[in-house]
Amino acid sequence: MASHIVGYPRMGPKRELKFALESFWDGKSSAEDLQKVAADLRSSIWKQMADAGTKYIPSNTFSYYDQMLDTTALLGAVPPRYGWNGGEIGFSTYFSMARGNASVPAMEMTKWFDTNYHFIVPELGPDVNFSYSSHKAVDEYKEAKALGVDTVPVLIGPVSYLLLSKPAKGVEKNFSLLSLLSKILPVYKEVVSELKAAGASWIQFDEPTLVLDLDSHKLQAFTDAYAELESTLSGLNVLIETYFADVPAEAYKTLTSLKGVTAYGFDFVRGTKTLDLIKGEFPKGKYLFAGVVDGRNIWANDLATSVSTLQALEGVVGKDKLVVSTSCSLLHTAVDLVNEPKLDKEIKSWLAFAAQKIVEVNALAKALVGQKDEAFFAANATAQASRKSSPRVTNEAVQKAASALKGSDHRRATNVSARLDAQQKKLNLPVLPTTTIGSFPQTIELRRVRREYKAKKITEDDYVKAIKEEISKVVKLQEELDIDVLVHGEPERNDMVEYFGEQLSGFAFSANGWVQSYGSRCVKPPIIYGDVSRPKAMTVFWSSAAQSMTKRPMKGMLTGPVTILNWSFVRNDQPRSETCYQIALAIKDEVEDLEKAGINVIQIDEAALREGLPLRKSEHADYLHWAVHSFRITNVGVQDTTQIHTHMCYSNFNDIIHSIIDMDADVITIENSRSDEKLLSVFREGVKYGAGIGPGVYDIHSPRIPSTEEIADRINKMLAVLETNILWVNPDCGLKTRKYSEVKPALNNMVAAAKQLRTQLASAK
């Protein structure tokens, strides 16, 4: 029985690629230095898979930024603003598309399906001249071959690439992206021909959009695309890989009827219903790549259950046509448990990171051909039993409190317009009030202080003194810039979710469990292994200290329950909604303590609410019900004069705008600038929004500094569709990834733009 890995983490076990990228971007190292780090990482990954016995090892899943951006480069689909004049696309053009540069903004970034990974959205139109402009896929295949590893080159499939794109600025919004299929397929043919010539025997096309609700026109595009590619693909084994959900019945029929295709990959962790379709009918003589090992979570596989699933599939497709695989790319999980010497031993026995998942996949493949590793399976069974019976997993009081929530809607007693009036009397803010989203730049010195405190190299008194000094600097800077509602800058936090998880029961933390979010940005998701509660106040001390340094309103900064849930590795032994309600109760306690401490503005970030939306429309209502309910639980008990903010970023919110309204926050700040102000179209189409709203006026994920005029222009576009008295002025997101040399002038221009428009509005009265 053969084994397969869909894809692998690319940052490295100790984030080697992250540091190499940032060094290159800062001009401290050369392109050759970056390429050397990348080549070393690829080599070690391929060797690791080969040594474990993996037959189908992927190549071209490595990326310097994002696989969708790699495909844009492959196709030569560079927007004109980047000044590319043809030829092989180099780092300058590639990273300008991803990050922007001094003169032009970056391309839009959004979430990859329902994960916390982000991709760069292609900007396409009828005038794009596609050409084969990046030979990365072929180069990496040859690189692996030279190391003695025969790989399966992986490409984003042509139909999914187009369906995940957007019409470029100036192109009609109803432009059919699929009309470009005949223009991109010649480039795909060139790549495939080169891979064949280089000796490839398999090729993998990732077509994850097949799990979405697709109409017949979109499904027909798959049929057309692979019929057109059939002659070029002749002589190759072709795998179409899907992941993240069930493949709907009509899509399954389309997929299994595609011409020139040898094998189909399915996610059997999040797509268990697909099993029934396969048992009902599967094309004779085709391979089934069975994704039974979870690529998105860190729990050890239940090997006994997986063997049963695989044996049932064997009976349908035949032993020689079944391949054991991961459910999706391991990009979405941490790299290696070997790097976790301090993790609690019992909890560690319940886990499997990417390196361990490779071992699991191969152990399952061997077990199915009579080479079962009895000791490995016995240890797995012991760990599974331990997790089910461990007393540290269950807290009856928490379960009882969460269960009691279901009888109420948890809405604040007064409507939002009355609350805003009460808040304005207390806060006395100007028209177009300015604020930021929460974090300020995390300097090298600040990171050193946190690191030394964690390592017990400095005392708690020294740590508190250093953090208070940093807060004081941030407060003073905001006052000098004349920002209206301040933040303390979050100097005590490395990560917005990790910080809270460390103070809540039911959470565990890795030392090196980093996962790529976008580009060089990595996050270290907490591990929720048990029932969640708040033993003591988490932010009151720092927020109170910050408020004592200024007469202006100081925001208390919290992460909301849905975002903590969606940005964690969540226990898989109870419904996600149950865990979310438990977190909501913990955050509710914190909100009420902040209010008692005199904090009149409290922000409860729900950056990831949209991210958790199921991929199928039939499941949206249930998710949105418990997610929005969880948010309302957090602040149902506060007074009318306490202003509740929330923040959301980098997703398409237009389809859930009514649920956002139903959250009943007093003010929402929301990403807007990088997505071409797509959010504003909702209000142009007549959606009425009565609460405060701050669509972001500039993109913080780019080093580019916007001018006062540019920001004023954005605010004017907002004023065309939103009432003056509800509009706030703020950046797209937190500022922790930026430098002070970028933040100060950008915020200065933002405040200047707000003041300029206040003057204009006053004179127009």
Describe the structure.
- The mean pLDDT is 95.
- Helix content is 42%, strand content 12%.
- The chain is globular and about 75 Å long.
- The longest helix has 25 residues, at 740-764.
- It is of the alpha/beta class.
- An eight-stranded parallel beta sheet has the order 1-12-11-10-9-8-6-2. A five-stranded parallel beta sheet has the order 17-19-20-21-22. A three-stranded mixed beta sheet has the order 13-16-18.
How would you sum up the major sheet?
8 strands, parallel
What is the share of helical residues?
40-55%
* Terminal CA distance: 77 Å
Give the C-alpha Rg.
26 Å
Q: Runs with pLDDT <50, length 5+? A: none
User: Strand share of the residues?
Assistant: 5-15%
The count of β-strands is 22
- In DSSP terms, counting alpha (H) and pi (I) runs of 4 or more, how many helices? 27
**Overall geometry:** globular
Order of strands side by side in the largest beta sheet?
1-12-11-10-9-8-6-2
- How does the helix and strand content classify structurally? alpha/beta
Q: Give the overall pLDDT as a whole number.
A: 95
Catalytic activity: 5-methyltetrahydropteroyltri-L-glutamate + L-homocysteine = tetrahydropteroyltri-L-glutamate + L-methionine
Active site: 701
Binding site for 5-methyltetrahydropteroyltri-L-glutamate: 18, 116, 521-522, 567
Function: Catalyzes the transfer of a methyl group from 5-methyltetrahydrofolate to homocysteine resulting in methionine formation.
Essential attributes:
single chain; 765 residues; alpha/beta; 5-stranded parallel sheet; 22 strands; 42% helix; amino-acid biosynthesis; metal-binding
